[in-house]
Fold these 4 entries.
Entry 1:
Amino acid sequence: MRALTEAELLAGWEAAAGHGPAVRAVALAAAAGGHTFAEAGALPLGARDALLVELRAACFPGDLQCLARCPGCGEELDVAVPLSDLRQPAPAPPGEATVTAGGVRVRYRPLTGLDVLAVDPAAPDARRRLVGRCVLEVEGLPVDGGGELPREAVAAVAAALAEADPRADLRIDLTCAVCGHGWAAPFDVPAHVWADVDACARGLLADVHALALAYGWPEADILALGPARRRFYLEAIGA
């Protein structure tokens, strides 16, 4: 994947800014893969996050810096996560699959970003509704006429979804430097990539603001300047 131009990065940031995490993840994946929002939202979560990792690698090479709290002693740790740890190949989730549990046979598809967008995570039945969006058929009947899924079937489909698309719930192995406790910590790819994109975009806009005030140049002309020339002009005006 090629690095986004600064104008493309700002466009992706603008499309995502002001929205919640689920929208930001899809908007950034759309920018990364050259997709429409709907196309990026229809990707399985693991494929969406793989696009975000490649976006991060192309635009901001280097380790991802994050904080993690040790569950053993409570110490807050500074962690550098190499991009290579996040770029491990994973099998593509199947288009459709079936599982039998709770006395019913369920046909389902992978979980997508649009599914996550459609369900309020704070709702008391959020897990059931999320799983329900992936269900295509229950015992040969359309979902509309299949009634409520048994609890066992919901659990079985949820487990099958996680197993089929492991990148959707990425975890990294950490060891506490203080107490030696080791654990697999969840890693929120969209949140970390968004943090880098947001910081970069705000820095670019601050540069545009300073140079526009000083010289009256439009944003497009300022972004067209190479980094070295832009830095010279910023230093010249003391910004």
Note: The chain has two domains: 6-64+179-220, 97-164.
Entry 2:
Amino acid sequence: MLPLNNTDIVTGVRNRDKQVFEIIFNQFSPSMFSIALRYLKDQEEAQDIVQDVFLNLWRTAENLDERAPIQHYLARATVNTCLNRIKKTQRQQAYAKEQQQTQEPGTIEHLLLEHKELEAQYLSILEKLPEQCRRVFEMSRIKGLSPAEISQQLNISINTVYTHLTTALKKIRLGLLNQQ
């Protein structure tokens, strides 16, 4: 068969001409393998990438642009496929590492200990609040009452309730930050 120009190649691939497809596979797969190997540094993975690129070319042949040289299309497709594979591998490794860390026996005990320490600090700060301020805060955050309900039950203005809540939150926040 005579050497094919880019238009003949694209037309052949679009028409699913197996002979044209075989010609471009034989002609371009070594250089695509070389590109993939540079990125992945693994021969089997590089071969898989080349297979994927040519399989995708076959599947999406109707989308080929006859103005773009086929070797440029294949090279770009190979690079993109390699980069996607690398990103996927990195995500899988990060996920596996995260899973391993959360399943380590010391991690759960460590988190429980941190939680108990933080709770003790919180309770200590809460005890140091002025009595009315602490009562308003507990009614709001522990009992879940609205500012209007607290105002009515304690017979204080709603603005006083907001002032107590703001003061309590500020002191708790500062107290926790200072103890760390």
Note: The chain is about 80% helix and 0% strand.
Entry 3:
Amino acid sequence: MQLSKFITLFLVSLFSVAKAHTVLLPAHGRRCFFENLSQGDEFSVSFQFGDRSPSSTEQLNGDFLIYGPNDQIISEQYESEHGETTITARSAGKYTYCFLNERSSIDTKDVTFNIYGVIYVDLDNPNTDSLDASVRQLSKLVHEVKNEQSYIVIRERTHRNTAESTNSRVKYWSIFQLIVVIANSVFQIYYLKRFFEVTSYV
């Protein structure tokens, strides 16, 4: 009994696939990738748009599309900052997913995305609470936590850039105020000195 549970756990760990990537999107362009799926395979993509520019202070967005084997759109998200999509392959073939930056001229926009999926396993009774189903559910939850951590990292980068930009502006404004105060003090000293000068006429 223990041996069969171990074998099932081992097989499920082989069937779970996960990858993480970060790519730069060209201005007015797109980046596409593909996966070959069999019928019944589950495929998930989570993504987060960001900006590689250190001076960026805003959260960028983009478009995301998934095409089926016949080049028909089976999932789409427009102007999203982040998102997650899960599909189940209805037929075997090449499934293409694209990140679009076609409506923007920003050339420092990047996207961090995670892909993971479960190869379909035909269980005798998939409705029962089997160990295989529990392990797959646990694996999916772990990937969701990992994706959330990736999202937090990118948000932290954006907020850090905003804070550094604000600090820089406050610094230069303080220097400008100091220059104005010094110039005003010099002018007042000069003016008062001339005011109290005694001019004698012979």
Note: The chain has one domain: 2-157.
Entry 4:
Amino acid sequence: MDPSFAADFAEMARHMHQGEDVGQTVETVAQFAKEALACDCAGVMLVHGGKEVESAATTDPLVVKADRLQMECGQGPCLESIWDHETFVIHDTETETRWAEWCRQVSGLGVRSVLSLRLFTHNNTMGALNLYAVEPGRFDDEDIAVATIFAGHASVALASARNESSLRKAIDARHLIGQAQGILMERFNLNADQAFAILRRYSQDKNMKLRAVAEHMVESRQLPA
């Protein structure tokens, strides 16, 4: 690997880990993937709830169309990379026999080469990194090796961003609940445990998340009707 490329690659990895949230991180991953592999466009699909797949970031409207076609056809290398935990290469969509319907349609869009890799940690699969080129035979063994290393860095960066986002939400929820408790304690001369018991009871009775009950209390100064 060329030393200058290695340095650029390391810098990309550092930038991916500096994303403030999942949205920013996934956009950075897609853009840097396109640059690292020098392909025409790239995209990232994310899995939510273990089954719902979202086209989370794309560098070109062509990727949006290709992703949407996979959803509509229910087939494609990106989806299969997620579910089968494999790396898939299409050297030419015009002659590829796997995912025949999807290949037929994306070749009509001008996509000829595809490289799809799973984004994952030891705990779970987060999605797939998808690279597209308009020329056939674009991705060789060296490209696959580079993309695999890149996908590993991207997976760690996305996992970190998700963890930070979850932690931030948990802290915000705890803060809201504390504020709601304070309002109830002052208004009804309750202690902290009694105020929390009221919030929890409303959460159960109204089938609302505790955070939503607390947010309603803080914003309206009233418990949900």
Note: The first strand starts at residue 41 and ends at 48.
